[in-house]
């Protein structure tokens, strides 16, 4: 393993599989009565969150604690950041406190990359702007592999707001590395300009793609990032790109439905689809803790010198 | 170059395991409460072989499991993070049972120390015993085996390697002299 996890593209196929296999063994720990391992005792993991997040922060916190690491939560609100401290000074403060790993979420794409040049510990990207969210991609791949088996040649469809989605980018990169065939489906306005350089196919027609999909991942419509008119109305978006009951019926019988959360029920995904047995949405949360344990273990468990 | 020679061949391993199986039956008076737990990878294979033999001899089916000790090692920071092995305990657990830990080679004793720590997370066995195919000496902790296939005096510079049919295609224990490399 490399020292940091900044981008899903940093992972070779072997490294990605090592993380997934490690998570597979660690999943058994969650089934035990004592869900704690002594592995990272005496190590400090700092959760540095400049952007609101509940599930990702809690997920990293649970993962670090199950490995016996000490966890320090640092959120920008009510901290020295709101007094104008720069990212670099914050990083140096954490460094002085002896952080072995910094888990960072930041609204600026590239912040984790900069941070990695300032601290000695490992940096884990927990979402930077509209860039990447590699542990989300890993937990998605892990959830898919547990339901579908090996991902080679599997057809994965990612639907929705690709433009603002760090989840989509990380997933495309990782799934490509793992041998899956990814198709992005979105309105043209919600695709990044450079999407033709991504290792995936692009379609504007959800109904044509659904019958050929092994897994369909619905992305959240990120209203908070929508400062322009990307589609005429929510209703029209939902009609053309939402996964409702009729569209769900067009999917193969063993295909699964995924969503990184939080969901807009009734918008990109119908409630009854989200709650169906073929939906992995709740599993994804549990798998998130497991995959983050695997990542923290592989980054911090050995000697990185 | 390093020269390696076989110190145990297939039939020797077979006899050693047969004897250990009898000893377990004798020491535990019929192995009623015994659970065999192997340390991955080869310890698990050996645990299954012992279980089969005990069943052959006395007709009792012994629960067999595995316990991965990677997360409990004391030398994790001395190398890159290691891949994990499988932990699979029998459904009835280990509470009140006589757990026989099984591994291929006993050396520093640190693996066994880690296994004892790992085991304590799953319950409180009535007793824990240790079965080992090869004891090569050089203990660094106050640990000894209850059942030993072969005591093999070695130098610290030598390497002991265990091959088993299930994982390596043949049964053998070799001793490799690490002379002037």
From TrEMBL, chain A:
<dbReference type="InterPro" id="IPR036901">
    <property type="entry name" value="Asp/Orn_carbamoylTrfase_sf"/>
</dbReference>
<feature type="binding site">
    <location>
        <position position="55"/>
    </location>
    <ligand>
        <name>carbamoyl phosphate</name>
    </ligand>
</feature>
<keyword id="KW-0808">Transferase</keyword>
<feature type="binding site">
    <location>
        <position position="136"/>
    </location>
    <ligand>
        <name>carbamoyl phosphate</name>
    </ligand>
</feature>
<dbReference type="Pfam" id="PF00185">
    <property type="entry name" value="OTCace"/>
</dbReference>
<feature type="binding site">
    <location>
        <position position="262"/>
    </location>
    <ligand>
        <name>carbamoyl phosphate</name>
    </ligand>
</feature>
<dbReference type="InterPro" id="IPR006130">
    <property type="entry name" value="Asp/Orn_carbamoylTrfase"/>
</dbReference>
<feature type="binding site">
    <location>
        <position position="133"/>
    </location>
    <ligand>
        <name>carbamoyl phosphate</name>
    </ligand>
</feature>
<feature type="binding site">
    <location>
        <position position="220"/>
    </location>
    <ligand>
        <name>L-aspartate</name>
    </ligand>
</feature>
<dbReference type="InterPro" id="IPR006131">
    <property type="entry name" value="Asp_carbamoyltransf_Asp/Orn-bd"/>
</dbReference>
<dbReference type="Pfam" id="PF02729">
    <property type="entry name" value="OTCace_N"/>
</dbReference>
<keyword id="KW-0665">Pyrimidine biosynthesis</keyword>
<feature type="binding site">
    <location>
        <position position="166"/>
    </location>
    <ligand>
        <name>L-aspartate</name>
    </ligand>
</feature>
<feature type="domain" description="Aspartate/ornithine carbamoyltransferase carbamoyl-P binding">
    <location>
        <begin position="3"/>
        <end position="145"/>
    </location>
</feature>
<comment type="similarity">
    <text>Belongs to the aspartate/ornithine carbamoyltransferase superfamily. ATCase family.</text>
</comment>
<feature type="binding site">
    <location>
        <position position="105"/>
    </location>
    <ligand>
        <name>carbamoyl phosphate</name>
    </ligand>
</feature>
<comment type="function">
    <text>Catalyzes the condensation of carbamoyl phosphate and aspartate to form carbamoyl aspartate and inorganic phosphate, the committed step in the de novo pyrimidine nucleotide biosynthesis pathway.</text>
</comment>
<dbReference type="GO" id="GO:0004070">
    <property type="term" value="F:aspartate carbamoyltransferase activity"/>
</dbReference>
<dbReference type="InterPro" id="IPR006132">
    <property type="entry name" value="Asp/Orn_carbamoyltranf_P-bd"/>
</dbReference>
<feature type="binding site">
    <location>
        <position position="56"/>
    </location>
    <ligand>
        <name>carbamoyl phosphate</name>
    </ligand>
</feature>
<feature type="binding site">
    <location>
        <position position="83"/>
    </location>
    <ligand>
        <name>L-aspartate</name>
    </ligand>
</feature>
<dbReference type="InterPro" id="IPR002082">
    <property type="entry name" value="Asp_carbamoyltransf"/>
</dbReference>
Automatic annotation (TrEMBL), chain B:
<dbReference type="Pfam" id="PF00156">
    <property type="entry name" value="Pribosyltran"/>
</dbReference>
<dbReference type="InterPro" id="IPR000836">
    <property type="entry name" value="PRTase_dom"/>
</dbReference>
<dbReference type="InterPro" id="IPR023050">
    <property type="entry name" value="PyrR"/>
</dbReference>
<comment type="function">
    <text>Also displays a weak uracil phosphoribosyltransferase activity which is not physiologically significant.</text>
</comment>
<dbReference type="InterPro" id="IPR029057">
    <property type="entry name" value="PRTase-like"/>
</dbReference>
<keyword id="KW-0804">Transcription</keyword>
<feature type="domain" description="Phosphoribosyltransferase">
    <location>
        <begin position="6"/>
        <end position="152"/>
    </location>
</feature>
<keyword id="KW-0808">Transferase</keyword>
<protein>
    <recommendedName>
        <fullName>Bifunctional protein PyrR</fullName>
        <ecNumber>2.4.2.9</ecNumber>
    </recommendedName>
</protein>
<feature type="short sequence motif" description="PRPP-binding">
    <location>
        <begin position="99"/>
        <end position="111"/>
    </location>
</feature>
<dbReference type="InterPro" id="IPR050137">
    <property type="entry name" value="PyrR_bifunctional"/>
</dbReference>
<comment type="function">
    <text>Regulates the transcription of the pyrimidine nucleotide (pyr) operon in response to exogenous pyrimidines.</text>
</comment>
<keyword id="KW-0805">Transcription regulation</keyword>
<keyword id="KW-0328">Glycosyltransferase</keyword>
<dbReference type="GO" id="GO:0004845">
    <property type="term" value="F:uracil phosphoribosyltransferase activity"/>
</dbReference>
<comment type="similarity">
    <text>Belongs to the purine/pyrimidine phosphoribosyltransferase family. PyrR subfamily.</text>
</comment>
């Amino acid at each position: 393993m490399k020292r940091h996890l900044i981008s899903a593209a940093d992972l070779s196929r072997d490294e990605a599989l090592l993380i997934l296999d490690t998570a597979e063994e660690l999943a058994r720990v969650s089934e035990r009565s004592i869900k704690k391992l002594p592995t990272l005792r005496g190590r400090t993991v700092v959760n540095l969150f400049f952007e609101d997040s509940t599930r990702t922060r809690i997920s990293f916190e649970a993962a670090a604690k199950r490995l016996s690491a000490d966890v320090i939560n640092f959120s920008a609100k009510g901290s020295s950041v709101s007094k104008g401290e720069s990212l670099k000074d914050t990083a140096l403060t954490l460094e002085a406190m002896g952080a072995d790993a910094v888990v960072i979420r930041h609204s600026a794409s590239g912040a984790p990359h900069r941070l990695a040049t300032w601290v000695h510990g490992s940096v884990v990207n927990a979402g930077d702007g509209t860039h990447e969210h590699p542990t989300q991609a890993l937990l998605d791949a892990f959830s898919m592999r547990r339901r579908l088996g090996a991902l080679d040649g599997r057809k994965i469809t990612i639907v929705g707001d690709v433009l603002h989605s760090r989840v989509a980018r990380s997933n495309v990169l990782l799934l490509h590395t793992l041998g899956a065939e990814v198709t992005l489906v979105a309105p043209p306005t919600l695709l990044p300009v450079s999407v033709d350089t991504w290792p995936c196919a692009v379609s504007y027609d959800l109904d044509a793609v659904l019958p050929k999909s092994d897994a369909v991942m619905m992305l959240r419509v990120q209203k908070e990032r929508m400062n322009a008119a990307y589609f005429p109305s929510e209703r029209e978006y939902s009609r053309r790109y939402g996964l409702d009951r009729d569209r769900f019926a067009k999917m193969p019988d063993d295909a699964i439905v995924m969503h990184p959360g939080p969901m807009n029920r009734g918008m990109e995904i119908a409630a009854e689809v989200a709650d169906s047995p073929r939906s992995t949405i709740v599993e994804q949360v549990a798998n998130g803790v497991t995959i983050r344990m695997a990542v923290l273990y592989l980054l911090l468990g050995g000697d990185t010198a | 170059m390093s020269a390696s020679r076989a110190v145990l061949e297939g039939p020797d391993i077979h006899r050693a395991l047969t004897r250990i199986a009898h000893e377990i039956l004798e020491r535990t008076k019929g192995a009623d409460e015994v659970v065999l737990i192997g340390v991955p990878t080869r310890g698990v294979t050996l645990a299954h072989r012992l279980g089969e033999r005990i069943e052959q001899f006395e007709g009792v089916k012994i629960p067999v499991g595995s316990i991965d000790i990677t997360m409990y090692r004391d030398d994790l920071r001395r190398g890159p993070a290691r891949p994990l092995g499988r932990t699979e305990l029998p459904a009835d657990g280990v509470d009140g049972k006589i757990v026989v830990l099984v591994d291929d080679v006993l050396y520093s004793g640190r693996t066994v120390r880690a296994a004892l720590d790992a085991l304590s997370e799953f319950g409180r066995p009535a007793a824990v015993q240790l079965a080992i195919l090869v004891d090569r000496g050089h203990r660094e902790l106050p640990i000894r085996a209850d059942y030993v296939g072969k005591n093999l005096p070695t130098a610290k510079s030598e390497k002991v390697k265990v091959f088993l049919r299930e994982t390596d295609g043949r049964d053998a224990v070799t001793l490799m002299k690490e002379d002037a490399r």
